[in-house]
Amino acid sequence: MTNVIYATSIPVFKQMLGGLKQVLSKAEAHATAKKIDPNALLQARLYPDMFPLLRQVQVATDFAKSVSARLAGVEVPKLEDAEQTFADLQARIDTVLAFLDGLEPSKFDDAATREIVTQAGTPKEKRFTGQSYLLNYGLPHFFFHTTTAYAILRHNGVEVGKKDYIGSY
Q1: Domains of the chain with CATH codes
Q2: 3-state DSSP of the chain
Q3: What is the pLDDT of residues 75-90, one digit of tens each?
Q4: Which uninterrupted H or E stretch holds 63?
């Protein structure tokens, strides 16, 4: 039987990151076809106090890797957040997808009840069971940032739709 926490995390992260890759590919093609400086899209925001597209992608991938690692009980991989181009973002997503592919389902056997502590030892420390961490914290944050990345591009005229956002399943 498939572990429920694995089944509701890893395949979902992989599917949505695949969709994000597709959306970013269309954005880059759009910029080229319309002779738009790619940085105009990479630095675009929905509102001045929100992260730009580039940072939305970084944060979405951070949630995919960190939530998965914590649920599997392995060290969270460190990424440098040095991306500047669409190609850099694609490579970052590929790195996270490779990490997710390397996580064995058996690592998630006790994930539902494992205690997850975020920002340990700080005033922002939060404690969760693995199930609550995934369903009430990790997935909502991940979806927020993937959705916002999609919305930034759609708002800026990139011809993407729901099929692009959802990816292959």
Answers
A1: 4-166 (1.20.120.450)
A2: CCCHHHHCCHHHHHHHHHHHHHHHHHHHHHHHHCCCCHHHHHCCCCCCCCCCHHHHHHHHHHHHHHHHHHHHCCCCCCCCCCCCCHHHHHHHHHHHHHHHHCCCHHHHCCCCCCEEEECCCCCCCEEEEHHHHHHHHHHHHHHHHHHHHHHHHHHCCCCCCHHHHHCCC
A3: 999 999 999 999 999 9
A4: helix 53-72
Q: Is the pTM of this model over 0.90?
A: yes
Question: What gap in Å lies between CA 151 and CA 165, rounded to an integer?
Answer: 10
| pLDDT above 80: residue 139 | yes
